[in-house]
Amino acid sequence: LLRNREKIQFPFCLMSVNITRIAIQALREECLSRECNRQQKVIPVVNSFYAATFLHLAHIWRTQQKTISDSGFVLKDLEVLAKKSPRRLLKTLEIYLAGVSKGQSSLLGAKKCCGPQAPYSKDLTFTGVCDLQPHSSEGTWLI
């Protein structure tokens, strides 16, 4: 689960499977062909596309305070965007990573600069499975 200070839970594994599906479909439907041809590479483009799509999803989830009940709608919108504008997602990832390398962003979250190219404004923390604690006798887990 991904969470921030507001304790918004993010179903990381579930979303990872769905983004993998989106990336494979985008590749099969030739949405990534132009970028693959431009770079003369396939696997690195698909990897970057996956990361860019996940980055966008995390941003939407955090800024719009989505919950698991919103996930179907969020994924549907994300899939449309990913197939329609893959270059836009990839460019956002490039800008984000450039900020990380210059110390303007943290690796897990936030742009520290302002402006229209700085949509990621809060640090994220990840909770591993080992950090989960059982909740009473109900068999549910708390983070």
Characterise this structure:
The chain is mainly α and 143 residues long. The chain has one domain. 52% of the residues lie in helices and 7% in strands. The chain has 5 helices and 4 strands. The strands form 2 sheets. Strands 1-2 form a two-stranded antiparallel sheet. Strands 3-4 form a two-stranded antiparallel sheet. A hairpin with a 4-residue loop joins strand 3 and strand 4. The longest helix is centred in the middle third of the chain and has 21 residues. The protein is globular. The chain starts with a strand and ends with a strand.
How are the elements arranged and paired?
Elements: E1 2-3, H1 12-28, H2 33-39, H3 43-63, H4 71-84, H5 86-101, E2 125-126, E3 133-135, E4 140-142
Antiparallel strand pairs: 1-2, 3-4
Helix pairs in contact: 1-3, 1-4, 3-4, 3-5
Task: Fill in the keyword field for this structure.
143 residues, mainly alpha, two-stranded antiparallel ribbon, 4 strands, 52% helix, globular, disordered C terminus
